[in-house]
Amino acid sequence: MKILVVALLSALGAWLFWYVTGESGFYIVGLIVVVAYAERIYKRIKKGRVSDLD
């Protein structure tokens, strides 16, 4: 449930940033979000807790 709230807040933040800076800013934020989520998932897999993504 927590990850859903974070995703919604991230989407809202990214939209606001895009609205202010234009499309290039949106792509930069999208890249940062993807890298951050990939890092989190990698850490969970490394710990062996891949089933607990909440």
Polypeptide structure, described:
The chain is mostly helical and 54 residues long. 83% of the residues lie in helices and 0% in strands. The protein has one domain (2-47). The protein has helices at residues 2-21, 23-47. It is elongated.
Write the layout of secondary structure elements.
Layout: H1 2-21, H2 23-47
Structural features:
mainly alpha; 83% helix; 0% strand; single chain; elongated
Quick overview of this protein structure:
With 54 residues, this protein is mainly α.
Q: Major beta sheet, specifics? A: none
Which percent band covers the strand fraction?
A: under 5%
Could you tell me the radius of gyration in angstroms?
13 Å
Estimated structural class = mainly alpha
Number of strands: 0
Transmembrane segments: 26-42
Keywords: Membrane, Transmembrane, Transmembrane helix
